[in-house]
From TrEMBL:
Keywords, alphabetical: Glycosyltransferase, Transferase
Enzyme Commission code: 2.4.1.292
InterPro entries listed in its UniProt record: Glyco_trans_1 (IPR001296), Glyco_trans_4-like_N (IPR028098), Glycosyltransferase_grp1 (IPR050194)
Glycosyl transferase family domain: residues covered: 189-353
Species the sequence originates in: Gimesia aquarii
Every Glycosyltransferase subfamily 4-like N-terminal domain range: 19-175
EC top class named in words: transferase
Organism phylogeny: Bacteria, Pseudomonadati, Planctomycetota, Planctomycetia, Planctomycetales
Gene from which the chain derives: pglH_2
Entry keyword Zinc-finger: no
GO terms of molecular function: glycosyltransferase activity
Name of the protein: Alpha-1,4-N-acetyl-D-galactosaminyltransferase
Domain of life: Bacteria
Pfam families in the cross-refs: Glyco_transf_4, Glycos_transf_1
């Protein structure tokens, strides 16, 4: 490959919704150096908030409007798009895009330049069924590299039979954050949620899905409020478990100490108000929510799974506790709330770790290196 020419990269993802993988794709697309890379984005199903961001940064976006699990019209549209774009690299994200993208490249006309395919796996996908694992295995010959956002993800796919030679890790990147509390935002939130002036705010931010185990956090609040009656858990996000969780909060009689805020567009303004961030998931890839909290200098208490261990340094930037250990979440939270010096030290260490180890520049350099590697 002559690096005096621009490398054409097409990024393929199911949607441009406001979620973790989509955020990382948008950061990558808008930050790759324009003098070396020409980027286009393809969304299989629909656009979303990140579509606007991409277009504002003059990144072309193509929406294929996929309607079914296997949509022949979207599949043909993808092949046609690749024939038109003629990328050097097709970088796919998440199962549907990983599958459609590799199949489309496999069946491009022989006269068509076939791009190298880099597959992004974003999670320890224990949810995949036998047929999905079979699809993954059948498409390995079309895979130049498989990149995970954590070592835990790579270990998972190694165990699934992906050859070591094509496995790579590129950690998520996170922008620097201003952790200064805005008193106007604080007053608005306290008024909106009818919070007592002495409330100690702890928070979960994420999709309300079963894997997140938010029920464990409700149990933890039940225990924690016995030690600190001023604690308030803010649950920010939406999803299929929300109604069930609201019922459980009522059942556990923790409703006075829990607020369900739903999806918010102002999370970046709210984060500096939180004293602790909680994540109880039984599996993750690399949590954008944890990274964002740490970038704002918020101590994190998280489930002790490998991807979380790659972010949270136990006893230094926060604490790790066993999956399902509600008592552990409560005890560690009380320890941080009761010790202002410990909280201050953890806040400083968290912010420093994100700035030094998980910044956007490192993420961009990681992907740029992979792009050059597959074209050698």
């Amino acid at each position: 490959m002559n690096y005096n020419t621009v490398i054409k990269v097409s990024l393929l993802i199911p949607t441009l919704d406001q979620s973790g993988a989509e955020k990382q794709l948008a950061l990558l697309a808008t930050t790759l150096p324009r003098d070396e890379f020409e980027v286009q984005v393809i969304a299989l199903t629909r656009g979303g908030p990140y579509e606007r961001l991409l277009k504002e940064n003059h990144i072309p976006v193509k929406i294929l409007n996929k309607r079914f699990r296997f949509d022949p019209f979207a599949y043909r549209a993808l092949k046609k798009t690749l024939q038109s774009q003629q990328p050097d690299i097709l970088h796919t994200w998440l199962f549907a895009a990983n599958s459609y993208g590799r199949m489309a490249v496999k069946h491009l006309p022989s006269s068509q330049k076939r791009p190298k395919v880099i597959v992004s796996e974003r999670c320890i996908d224990s949810w995949k069924s036998n047929w999905q694992n079979k699809v993954d295995r059948s498409l390995l010959p079309q895979t130049s590299l498989l990149v995970g956002n954590s070592q835990g993800v790579i270990d998972f796919y190694r165990e699934k039979g992906v050859p070591e030679s094509i496995l790579r890790v590129v950690h998520n990147g996170i922008p620097s954050a201003n952790s200064t509390v805005c008193e106007t935002t604080r007053c608005q939130l306290f008024k909106e949620q009818n919070l007592p002036e002495n409330a100690r705010l702890i928070a979960f931010v994420g999709r309300l899905a079963r894997q997140k185990r938010v029920e464990d956090l409700l149990w933890a609040v039940e225990l924690l409020r016995q030690m600190n009656e001023n604690v308030i858990l803010l649950v920010i996000g939406d999803g299929p478990e929300r109604a069930k969780l609201e019922q459980l909060a009522h059942k556990y009689t923790v409703t006075p100490n829990v607020r369900f805020l739903g999806h918010r567009n102002d999370v970046s303004k709210l984060l500096p108000l939180f004293e602790i961030f909680l994540l109880a998931s039984d599996f993750e890839g690399q949590s954008n929510s944890i990274m964002e909290a740490m970038s704002y200098g918020i101590p994190v208490i998280a489930s002790d799974i490998q991807p979380n261990r790659e972010l949270v340094v136990h006893g230094k930037t926060g604490f790790l506790t066993s999956v399902g250990d509600c008592t552990g979440f409560a005890q560690y939270a009380e320890r941080i709330l009761a010790d202002s010096q410990l909280a201050k030290e953890m806040a400083s260490a968290s912010q420093k770790r994100m700035q030094e180890e998980f910044n956007i520049d490192k993420m961009i350099q990681g992907y740029a290196t992979l792009y050059r590697e597959v074209l050698k």
